[in-house]
């Protein structure tokens, strides 16, 4: 599908017609995750679940350093190159080889940092826990070079099928090692590694077959990409602080048991993001393919899109909140039941967080990524500071409230400054 064909797609028909693939896939994956939760919580204690989530929260600080946010540049420049086979091959190949080489160095550094600063508090051996946790983000960033190609082409069916296959590979591996072999949290790390590895092999085959991955490296393309993407790195770092650092604060001032209970509630509340992700995976290519040629038309698309998008997210958040206690009681054993208090607060936090995406796209198009970075800086350090102050006094629930507050600050920030360039009515 050429850029002009994507640009001319009716956004409502595309969203309803194509996001259904992502929605079904995410519902399948998340639903499976929900029904697997009784198994995970049956074989893991809250403390063990807390160790797993703390380790993965630490590992998730490294994806932004592995790719230096080049996936943002990939999205930005894709439609300028997608109708030129040689140009797109240079773009994909340059980004892929850079992420691979640079990412290996970052992962090595991450292993060293985890060994000295985190592992002693978690009381787990270095091998194979730490290398597995650090390898997963590298594989996931390399996978993006293939999945973004299909996403930008609106190949929702293909992306959803691949996601489903790799999910069941990872889940099957995890269940066998957890239930049959009693590997504990190691089973989940191995399952995540296998899922990411299979996805990488599939997308490598696709890119190679389509002639988009070659032994090419264009320094000019890399410089252009990094000039665009590097301002996003502070934003992503601040996003990590706002979304995941709370587990580290809770562990430092509390215990891995507190982290485990908070994480179960947080993970269940975050399932509402499947609606957000399914819609945005279709709307973002439609918006970017339009905004690069016709800003006024893009403005009208956003204005038609936002009311529908808000009520969709509100319905998901309200449903989770109303039935949060029942969901927890059904899905977990007694030792995890107190986690239900976290769900309503975090669900509405993710509703607010989902609304910023169109406004940040406006700022990014007008080369105002520094405004997004500044807003995320304010959000992140407000979140971190409030957590450090209130978590010791009020426990993990304080982290849920600071998440809602900090997400609201960032969404209002992007909305306010985007109006200086495009006034969304």
Structure description:
- The protein is mostly helical and 425 residues long.
- It has 21 helices and no strands.
- It has helices at residues 3-7, 11-43, 46-59, 63-67, 70-81, 85-117, 119-122, 129-152, 156-180, 185-209, 219-229, 232-243, 245-253, 256-269, 273-291, 295-322, 324-331, 342-354, 357-365, 369-394, 396-418.
- Helix 8 packs parallel to helix 10 (185-209).
Percent helix:
over 70%
| Secondary-structure element series | HHHHHHHHHHHHHHHHHHHHH
Net shape: globular
Distance between the termini: 32 Å
Report Rg: 21 Å
Poorly predicted spans? none
Tally of helical segments: 21
**How many β-strands, per DSSP?**
0
Main sheet summary: none
Whole-number mean pLDDT: 87
Proportion in β-strands: under 5%
Computed structural class: mainly alpha
């Amino acid at each position: 599908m050429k850029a002009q064909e994507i640009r001319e797609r009716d956004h409502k028909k595309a969203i309803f017609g194509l996001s259904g693939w992502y929605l079904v896939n995410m519902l399948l994956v998340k639903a499976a995750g929900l029904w697997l939760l009784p198994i995970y919580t049956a074989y893991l204690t809250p403390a063990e679940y807390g160790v797993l989530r703390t380790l993965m929260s630490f590992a998730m600080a490294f994806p932004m350093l592995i790719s230096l946010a080049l996936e943002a540049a990939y999205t930005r420049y894709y439609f300028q190159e997608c109708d030129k086979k040689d140009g797109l091959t240079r773009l994909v190949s340059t980004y892929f080889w850079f992420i691979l080489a640079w990412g290996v160095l970052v992962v090595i550094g991450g292993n060293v940092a985890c060994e000295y600063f985190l592992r002693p508090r978690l009381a787990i051996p270095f091998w194979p826990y730490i290398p597995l946790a650090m390898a997963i983000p590298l594989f996931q960033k390399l996978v993006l070079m293939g999945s973004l190609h299909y996403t930008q082409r609106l190949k929702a069916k293909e992306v959803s099928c691949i996601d489903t296959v790799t999910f069941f590979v990872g889940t099957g591996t995890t269940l066998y090692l957890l239930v049959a072999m009693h590997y504990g949290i190691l089973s989940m790390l191995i399952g995540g590694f296998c899922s990411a590895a299979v996805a990488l092999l599939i997308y490598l085959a696709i890119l190679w077959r389509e002639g988009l991955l070659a032994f090419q490296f264009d320094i000019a393309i890399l410089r252009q990409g990094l000039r665009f993407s590097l301002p996003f790195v502070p934003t992503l770092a601040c996003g990590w602080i706002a979304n995941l650092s709370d587990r580290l604060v809770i562990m430092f001032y509390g215990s891995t048991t507190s982290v485990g209970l908070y994480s179960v509630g947080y993970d269940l509340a975050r399932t509402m993001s499947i609606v957000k992700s399914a819609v945005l995976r279709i709307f973002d290519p439609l918006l970017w393919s339009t905004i690069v040629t016709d800003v006024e038309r893009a403005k009208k698309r956003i204005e038609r899109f936002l009311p529908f998008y808000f009520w969709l997210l509100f319905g998901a958040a309200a449903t989770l909140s109303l039935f949060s206690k029942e969901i927890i009681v059904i899905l977990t054993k007694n030792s995890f039941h107190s986690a239900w208090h976290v769900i309503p607060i975090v669900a509405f936090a993710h509703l607010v967080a989902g609304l910023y995406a169109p406004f940040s796209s406006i700022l990014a198009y007008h080369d105002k990524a520094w405004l997004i970075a500044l807003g995320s800086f304010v959000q992140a350090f407000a979140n971190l500071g409030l957590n450090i102050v209130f978590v010791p006094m009020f426990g993990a629930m304080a982290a849920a409230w600071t998440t809602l507050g900090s997400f609201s600050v960032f969404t209002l920030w992007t909305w306010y400054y985007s109006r200086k360039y495009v006034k969304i009515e």
